[in-house]
Amino acid sequence: MTAFSGLDRPRGKAYNLFWTGVFFLLLITGCWLMYTASQSVDYTWRWYRIPQYFYYTETVDVRSEIEGEVASVRTTGDDIVISVQGEGETASYTLPGGEPLLDEGDFVSMGDILGTYEQGTPGVLLTGLWMTLEVSLFAIVLGIIIGLLTGLARIADNPALRLSAITYIELIRGSPLLVQIFLWYFVVGTLINTLLAKHGISQIPSLWFGVISLALFAGAYIAEIVRAGIQSVHRGQMEAARSLGMDYVQAMRKVILPQAFRRILPPLAGQFISLIKDSSLLGVIAIRELTKATRETVSTSLQPFELWIVCAILYLVLTFALSMFVQYLERKAI
């Protein structure tokens, strides 16, 4: 399917088969070149160590917090409960599916190991991936709200709204995102948290300053996308809606915005994908998203090739899934 199907002579099956074969040939050649290059460098590939950075099982030691005697060791379902009787106090410890190391009547000191159990823990790459998803989701939602409101203000008749929207858009688009992140974290964040601390209010985590900086950055670009989408709808649509008795807000909500929304979906998808990739900059303000988690893992494991390839694949999965979702919305909106 093309954008202007039916204008040219129909292609035969041989045409499609030939160019599909060319595509796969190029793909195989690229993979072969990558494999040949990887074998020519002095590097030991250790892909078998990658799964532990997503999920691993660790042995947890359960230690006694008091000094005394093991009063009882009983089984409750899959758990084992150990009670320690001290001088005037009793403490109970649960081993979820674990194994006790002491029996009833044994004497324990504070800090002695009563038993152990296995516990599954998300690895550093999985937690970094989750943080990237969380930050991106919050930033996308806030960015849509900011962009929609700013886009409407950008085309408003009210000079205060219009000039405010233009000023915001130009300020945000005129400076690098990394600088804005630094400003929000080191300047605005410090000022706000200092004021909160003086009034005895808990401080705002750095995560939210990162989310706000991303949302404001994306909002400026989304505002221009929304403005262009609204202005692309023919003026007659607004005139027809107003002639039916709708006021400006009703005409925008029921007639103009639904048509504009279908047109701005493709550029919005590109903006959302850029936002997910831009979230990798938040590592500079100590937010442990995917790129920062990968960088830390590389410094401790000395496996740069495998880990950076996995990091790139994870970003590709996120952006491709988002792209497919937006394409689904496009098909539903037609």
Automatic annotation (TrEMBL):
GO molecular function, one term: transmembrane transporter activity
Ranges annotated as spanning the membrane: 14-35, 135-156, 177-196, 208-230, 307-329
Alphabetic keyword roster: Amino-acid transport, Cell membrane, Membrane, Transmembrane, Transmembrane helix, Transport
Record membrane topology: Multi-pass membrane protein
Primary location group: membrane
Family: Belongs to the binding-protein-dependent transport system permease family. HisMQ subfamily.
PANTHER family recorded: GLUTAMINE TRANSPORT SYSTEM PERMEASE PROTEIN GLNP, MEMBRANE COMPONENT OF AMINO ACID ABC TRANSPORTER
The protein's name in its UniProt record: Putative glutamine transport system permease protein GlnP
The organism of origin for this protein: Desulfoplanes formicivorans
Upper lineage: Bacteria, Pseudomonadati, Thermodesulfobacteriota, Desulfovibrionia, Desulfovibrionales
